[in-house]
Amino acid sequence: MKLVGMFDSPYVRRVAISMRLLDLPFEHLNWSIGKDQDQVKQLNPLGQVPILVLDDGEVLVDSATILDYLDDRVGPERALVPRSGEPRRRVLGATTLAAGLADKARLQMYELLFRPAALRHPPLLARLHGQLLAAAAELEKVCAASTTPYLFGDRISQADITLGCAITYARETVKLEPPPAIRARCAKLGELAAFREIYLPFDAPVV
Ligand SMILES: N[C@@H](CCC(=O)N[C@@H](CS)C(=O)NCC(=O)O)C(=O)O
Q: Closest by alpha carbon to 142, among 132, 152, 134?
């Protein structure tokens, strides 16, 4: 399989780390959404990454769709989202919140990167940042309430992976100062080889 997109994207990262954890090898096509936009659009009309090209040439776009495919491929015993019921809802709930947090950081970045300064609308930036902080506050509660090695048990789930990717991205792009329970979780994730190989979360010891 070929995974398209740079690892500075939290969406590409969560796919790459998931594939690493699921022992699914991939070739990494390190295409930029800027200079390689035409190539990206040939695979995804939306011009976005991640894109996963399967061995038979089928193309999957959007990290949520790709993650769903990966879970389906490895089967329910190894999947990163539980099969059903409350465990599934809990993992999907926290995963959605963390991915949404990354979205709010990304939209702020686009305002700052693509819109000329004279045309910026500060209330929009403030609104996006407020939404990001509210999502972080909710995720902090989830992290603080967890007493298990990973957010929802002894095994890593997609909620942990997406949290680590989103928080790192928000910290790097919009200077989110993560609250303590989130910070501690991210530091633990940084001990995992999958994170270390793909993209190191902040506070992880560099060895
Ligand atoms: N919902 C999508 C978001 C993907 C996304 O926005 N990726 C960014 C890179 S961080 C991108 O490709 N942006 C290019 C653009 O929107 O023009 C997903 O989860 O895959």
A: 152
